[in-house]
Please model this.
Amino acid sequence: VQLQASGGGSVQGGGSLRLSCAASGRIVRIDNMGWYRRAPGKQRELVATITSGCVTNYADSVKGRFTIFRDNAKNMVYLQMNSLKPEDTAVYYCNADPVSLAPDGNFVAERAWGQGTLVTVSS
Model:
């Protein structure tokens, strides 16, 4: 399963961006999906997650500003980011827990990661 993230860019503080992440492959279903980020000089941190039943979880730093949602029919997850702050500057990575069909007909469950998309917020 491959994940392709998009939507990053440069924005002024207070602005908005929407990140998208598309999963492709021989997908049977996708359980949890999420977004993480790595700011310059810092470790990767969780931003938000969403279950297959659309139960969400957010880092305290983004609650009330970011919204994660998904389209199960399209195997996509999104991150709507509002009221952006300079401290939100980071490379954002999507991930997913898919179950896919291997060529031998077996089911494979293996976490997948997107390539990252850069978000830069200026003050």
About this structure: The chain has a mean pLDDT of 97. The two ends are 37 Å apart (CA to CA).
